[in-house]
């Protein structure tokens, strides 16, 4: 008990110290001030945007535009939905009951009348019917792996055993009275009902849901925290059962949530025996699944899946995910940078304590490359909060661009508010910006904004056609417009661009009355504060008779940030993946895998350092041609801070330090009294 108190005090101290350190360092270094305090600090008001339609090309997975199945699907176009209800790990597919940790209920299938509840697999039936109603082509089922599920009656607390293999004939209607639930029989039932994944059936299976929380969420089923070895053993056995029934379906795991879980699955005592050999649980899990796959001579893990709900706090140390104050909204604008930016310091205890594992995507990619190459990456739950605020819409739109840029295979938003209008707009700006099904392209191309942290840019074309250029532009300044000087390097000459956007006044995506005129593939574009834009470029169809324009230097931004270091991996398109991927519109789509050798290509759009790397063109074209991307870098622009600002910040630092001392002393006194 004493050690837990000490750990609590330590974490409080770290968070408070971090808040004061961010203020102090920002003021004295004169560099970027955290968005915790002002999202528009030191914004130059202009940005140079460079786009090269022939460089940095890679396929964008359509599955990153997903949402969890419990969300309101009206008015949003998504390509993937997944079962993510907190009780799904205890779901009994035979009886349709699930547990809340105390008793059994039919909450997961409450939409069905009483006379239908005896039909098996209704929770998946609900998933498939919702997908059909809202034209969602990709559906994912979560399997049960805790060892027990809810029983067959809701009047008591009886539980059924869970076994992964039946070793007997599968029944079209399972025996509901034998006290056992078989997972392979469940998968067989779903294949018989909906067909194989490659033929339009269930696209993939998740190996349970947030196992690090089982003992907390289901104390009646899992009284002790799960251990690393037990989780890997059960994952491998369940995955093998799935692959025997439907080898064309993808298997996802471990679906754990939060940085602490990535480190030690929230069981530090158990993790101590593995921590010397592996840097975090992610490494151990990947290595364990790889070893098990070699033993079974079958790939048992297709996609490394995690959940990430932002852990950032505002200047008052309040979690931003549940807050809508000005501090939280400003912090939210920068929060997605934890996914990729090594120069970003998130104000959260976990991110500070485990800074060596941040940013997340490059670190996860490096783990994949080292321990289980060829594995894809997904965020089947992500949330930065602000579902009903423009700050949430900007964060979600930025995250989707990041997922596209860094080769994430699948991602599903999981908002925590009832009103998710801005999350829907963030998805629709990529999937249905004109209300007629028009979407962001399927092939990412190189784009750069001069390391400006107060804006974001993502560009795409359709595979094999550079003339269909589309660009996402985001202005994160809360109060002021921002001028973008846009330069396009392409063999096509673009005449104008249609403009679609949403902003603080409304979550509705609207089209500007007039298009933007373009002269020799250069033009200026004025971005309103806190606005997300989709620019749809129109070419005349003729290839330029002269060489494409040279792109200017972008080292002009007031906001300087460092890109991903060149020794961390990001995604590339791979032809070596022999596992059939999820069916999208009943067609085969190649997914993205990670390779450490390809990091510089994605980082090149953001950084310019004296590093040269060769980058393959989109493999779908079948071309062996390579582009050389040279990035180069320069030193950060030197800045000065007014004396009055330094004095004010010094006062704030002193106040924070005094508050920190007061809180720690008060906590200690109160704990002694208890």
Task: Please specify the SSE layout and strand pairing.
Blueprint: H1 2-29, E1 46-52, E2 58-59, E3 66-68, E4 80-82, E5 98-99, E6 104-105, H2 122-133, E7 138-142, E8 148-150, E9 159-163, E10 180-182, H3 183-194, E11 204-206, H4 214-217, H5 228-245, E12 250-257, H6 259-264, H7 268-271, H8 281-296, E13 303-309, H9 326-334, H10 349-353, H11 360-371, E14 376-383, H12 390-405, E15 410-413, H13 421-431, E16 443-448, E17 455-462, E18 465-475, E19 482-489, E20 492-503, E21 506-511, E22 516-517, E23 522-527, E24 531-543, E25 570-573, E26 583-584, E27 587-588, E28 592-595, H14 599-604, E29 611-616, E30 626-631, H15 643-673
Parallel strand pairs: 1-19, 3-4, 3-15, 4-7, 7-11, 9-10, 11-12, 12-13, 13-14, 14-15
Antiparallel strand pairs: 1-16, 2-16, 5-6, 8-9, 16-17, 17-18, 18-24, 19-23, 20-21, 20-22, 20-24, 25-28, 26-27, 29-30
Helix pairs in contact: 1-15, 3-5, 5-8, 8-11, 9-12, 12-13
Give a structural overview.
This protein is α/β, with parallel strands linked by helices. Helices cover 28% and strands 24% of the residues. It has 15 helices and 30 strands. Strand 26 and strand 27 (587-588) form a beta hairpin. Helix 8 runs parallel beside helix 11 (360-371). 52% of the residues are buried. Mean pLDDT is 81; it is low at 1-12, 18-41 and 556-649.
């Amino acid at each position: 008990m004493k050690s837990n108190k000490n750990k609590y005090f330590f974490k409080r101290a770290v968070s408070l110290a971090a808040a004061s350190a961010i203020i102090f360092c920002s003021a004295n270094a004169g560099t970027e001030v955290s968005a915790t305090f002002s999202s528009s600090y030191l914004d130059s008001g202009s940005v140079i945007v460079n786009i090269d339609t022939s460089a940095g090309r890679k396929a964008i997975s359509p599955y990153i535009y997903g949402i969890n199945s419990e969300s309101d699907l009206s008015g949003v176009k998504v390509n993937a939905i997944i079962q993510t209800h907190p009780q799904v790990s205890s779901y009994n597919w035979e009886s349709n009951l699930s547990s809340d940790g105390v008793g059994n209920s039919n909450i997961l299938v409450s939409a069905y009348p009483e006379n239908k509840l005896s039909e098996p697999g209704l929770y998946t039936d609900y998933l498939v019917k919702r997908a059909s109603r809202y034209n969602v082509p990709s559906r994912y089922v979560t399997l049960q792996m805790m060892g027990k599920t809810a029983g067959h009656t809701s009047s008591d607390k009886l539980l059924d055993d869970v076994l992964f293999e039946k070793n007997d004939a599968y029944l079209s209607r399972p025996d509901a009275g034998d006290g056992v639930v078989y997972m392979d029989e469940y998968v067989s039932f779903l294949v018989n009902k909906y067909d194989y994944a490659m033929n339009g059936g269930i696209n993939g299976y998740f190996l349970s849901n947030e196992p690090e929380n089982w003992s907390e969420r289901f104390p009646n089923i899992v009284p002790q925290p799960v251990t690393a070895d037990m989780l890997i053993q059960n994952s491998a056995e369940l995955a093998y059962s799935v692959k025997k029934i439907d080898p064309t379906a993808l298997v996802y795991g471990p679906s754990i949530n939060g940085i602490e879980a990535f480190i030690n699955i929230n069981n530090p005592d158990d993790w101590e025996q593995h921590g010397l050999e592996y840097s975090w649980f992610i490494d151990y899990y990947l290595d364990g699944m790889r070893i098990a796959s070699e033993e079974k001579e079958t790939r048992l893990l297709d996609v490394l899946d995690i959940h990430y709900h932002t852990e950032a706090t505002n200047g008052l140390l309040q979690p931003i995910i549940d807050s809508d104050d000005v501090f939280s909204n400003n912090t939210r604008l920068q929060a997605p940078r934890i996914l990729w930016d090594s120069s970003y310091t998130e104000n959260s205890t976990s991110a500070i304590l485990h800074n060596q594992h941040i940013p997340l995507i490059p670190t996860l990619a490096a783990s994949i490359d080292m321990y289980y190459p060829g594995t894809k990456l997904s965020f089947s739950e992500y949330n930065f909060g602000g579902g009903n605020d423009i700050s949430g819409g900007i964060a979600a739109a930025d995250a989707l661009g990041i997922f596209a840029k860094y080769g994430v295979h699948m991602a599903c938003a999981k908002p925590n508010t009832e009103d998710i209008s801005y999350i829907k707009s963030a998805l629709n700006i990529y999937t249905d910006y004109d209300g007629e099904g028009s979407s962001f392209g399927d092939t990412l191309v190189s784009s750069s904004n001069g390391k400006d942290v107060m804006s974001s840019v993502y560009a795409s074309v359709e595979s094999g056609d550079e003339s269909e250029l589309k660009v996402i532009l985001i202005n994160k300044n809360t109060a002021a417009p921002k001028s973008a000087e846009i330069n396009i390097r392409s063999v096509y000459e673009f005449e104008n661009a249609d403009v679609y956007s949403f902003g603080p006044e409304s979550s509705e995506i609207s089209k500007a009355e007039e298009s933007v005129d373009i002269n020799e593939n250069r033009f200026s574009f004025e971005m309103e504060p806190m606005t997300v834009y989709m620019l749809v470029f129109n070419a005349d169809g003729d290839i330029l008779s002269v060489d494409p324009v040279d792109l200017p230097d972008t080292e002009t931004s007031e906001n300087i940030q460092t890109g991903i270091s060149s020794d961390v991996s990001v995604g590339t398109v791979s032809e070596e993946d022999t596992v059939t991927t999820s069916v999208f519109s009943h067609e085969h789509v190649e997914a993205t895998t990670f390779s450490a050798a390809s990091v510089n290509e994605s980082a090149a759009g953001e950084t310019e350092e004296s590093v040269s790397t060769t980058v393959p063109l989109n493999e779908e074209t079948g071309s062996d041609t390579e582009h050389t991307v040279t990035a180069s870098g320069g030193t950060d622009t030197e800045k000065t801070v007014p004396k009055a600002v330094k004095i004010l910040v010094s006062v704030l630092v002193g106040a924070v330090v005094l508050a920190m001392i007061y809180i720690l002393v008060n906590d200690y006194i109160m704990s002694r009294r208890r």
